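[09:14] KT: can someone run the structure on this one? pasting the chain below
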Amino acid sequence: MRSLPTLLALLAVAFGATACVRVSWISSDRQTPVPDLHIAGLAPGETTLDQALVQLGAPLFVWEADSKSYGLAFGWDEGLDWGVNVSVPIANEFSASLDYEDTNLQLEGLVLFFDGENRLLRIDRGLLSDLVPLREQRPADLPDQLGAAGDGSD
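[09:31] RB: done, structure tokens below
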């Protein structure tokens, strides 16, 4: 199996002077990993939301897990991202292009789940793509007294 740089070089030669091939290599550090000492200080059933935010700072994502709990995701990445852009002229004023980037596909992370009383339920670690739901979900309805006060009707 050929390495990626060899494959990209072959593509560049194959397209010759009629195409434009751009390859990007970017070293990146996104966010700071949560120190194990900070995680060890979090105890399900005891730690409150306020205590967790003081320890960890602002999360990347917050979502409603179900009608009685919600999740906070903290993520980080240290690595090399790469991308390829190929553009091939088809006619005088038209060209076809292809772009691919490897950025933000896999962030290491930590997810904290809290109950409706803002108490920590559990802590999960791993890739955020495995821990955070990717589909959009409609939040639970507000209680009647809150919904009526905020809907603009009198």
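[09:33] KT: thanks! Confidence is low (pLDDT under 50) at residues 146-150.
[09:34] RB: yep, looked fine to me
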